[in-house]
Design a protein that fits this description.
The structure holds two protein chains of two kinds. By secondary structure, chain A is mainly α. Chain A contains four helices and one strand; from the N terminus they run H-H-H-E-H. Chain B has helices spanning 7-26, 30-52, 55-72, 82-104, 124-143, 146-157, 162-169, 173-206, and one strand at residues 115-117. The chains are: A mainly alpha, B mainly alpha. The interface between A and B is large, with 31 and 50 residues.
Chain lengths: 120, 210
Amino acid sequence: MTMSTALPCDRLAELMPDLLDEPALFTETDADHVAHCLRCQAEMARFRRLRRTLAGLRLQHISTDPGVVEGVLEGLDSAAERRERHRTTGRRAASIVGLAAATAAGVGGVLVLATRRRSA
Amino acid sequence: MVAPVAAADVARLGQFEMGTLVAEARGGDRNAFDALVRRTWADTYSLAFRLTGNAEDARDVCQEAYLRAYRGLRRFRGDARFTTWLYRITANCASTQLGRRRRHRHEELDDELELNDLSPGSDPVGRSESASLRDAVQRALVALPPKLRAVVVLRDIYDLSHEVIAAELGISVSAAKVRLHRARHRLRDDVFLRSEAEGSAHDDVDRPAM
């Protein structure tokens, strides 16, 4: 983004938006130039005002229908219900599987015992 | 005589209450989460609107962001503010929504914003001057392409770091910086150069003919 061959004002104008975040980009020579250059001072003032105004927008809420928050809360209710239903279904499925496994194990055990008794 | 409460104390108290609500919500208290929603939704909606540029998408983004926050609350470690965490989720949802919108429809941005100023009262003269600058900035923001607008909104209004912005928008840090650079340049051109040009055009018209 830096053009070393450009005039100081053009080079600094290109750098100005980044100076807000990275003041280290600003060398002592640049500071000397700005101190004596009205064009660069005006440019810097514009970016500072822009940044201040943008930061101020954080305190401005965009008006909307209060129904938005109710919609959000209803959405959360539905999600919680779905999750609960899913959990209940999961628990029911797990108990059925458990019961089936226990029955199979019982039947298996009976068969093993019966086979052993027959062979004895 | 009752000593006036400093704004910093009020903010600290607000943060403390938020911290308590977050802890209760993490413990599964749904009422605490609802209280967090009521406290933060205007801020979240405003961010969603600024990122998407229209009310319908902003509502969808808001809804999705709170659902994700609710599901992911246990993962919130508390090393950042709850609001910052919520901004990140909102930015991510808005990015997804904008991607979806680009694929399915093309709509004009809604530039009629109605604003609620929450800043404490200041002097009327300074206020009207700053109000006109603020309006110009709002208009310029709406006119930015969504990709540039997202970065400047998240950095300059909501103060998120380049790293966080890059992560939530799915771009590299250097791409985020380049977009921010371009966005600030365009805003500066739109806000200052255009108004200065318009001002000098008015001067030419007002000047009596020789």
